[in-house]
């Protein structure tokens, strides 16, 4: 993933570190600091964190039931718990990213 700071530099947009982006519910969806560390997070409509990715290449995906209980977990290290409701993580995202 291309860092947001690189895109901002290319566009000539001034910024300062850390770069933080939050969604409309106040959940932090992106963070990048001056030390080249960054992470990206995604959330479902109920505020449950469903995806995480960081600068070292580690990522995970989680799914939840309607009560907010975790029903599935899969990460880039190959750990899998539960049964996915949707596509497999590795099928959904290009295998070359792993």
Can you offer a commentary on this structure?
The protein is mostly beta strands and 98 residues long. The protein has two helices and seven strands. The longest helix is centred in the first third of the chain and has 8 residues. The C terminus is likely disordered.
Low-pLDDT windows of residues: 94-98
Integer average pLDDT: 89
Note the overall shape.
elongated
Q: In which order are the strands of the major sheet placed?
A: 1-2-3-4-5-6-7
- Counting structural domains, the number is 1
Please summarize what this structure is.
By secondary structure, the protein is mainly beta.
Descriptors:
98 residues; mainly beta; seven-stranded antiparallel β-sheet; 2 helices; elongated; disordered C terminus
